[in-house]
Amino acid sequence: MAANPYVTPDSTAGNQSLSVESSGSIRRIKRFGVLQLGKMLGVLYFCMSLLAVPFLILATIIGGSERAGFGFGMIVMIPVLYTIAGFISGVIGAWVYNLCAKFVGGVEVEVV
Questions:
Q1: Which of 34, 47, 84, 103 could form a disulfide with 94 if both were Cys (CB 3.0 to 4.6 A apart)?
Q2: Does the global pTM surpass 0.85?
Q3: Across-strand partners of 110?
């Protein structure tokens, strides 16, 4: 059997590192909490939608008075809709990931 090129020469058999320049360990994400990822993405999408609000305000002011009600309504609705979309996409994404991870084993990450 060939020697592993990723193992450092001074490592012991029980504690082998997969990378010469790294001192972290490799971990595998086997599953995500479905509701927790939904909540996290809901909050993240809400924060990202707040970046669009100043531009919506500016467009409403520049656009004139005939559609001002629609513009100010969208200023309120865009963050709400983004939050709902983030939550739903997080729940669906976590469910699909958990389903696929059962077959392929998940994603490997290096924890330092």
A1: 34
A2: no
A3: 26
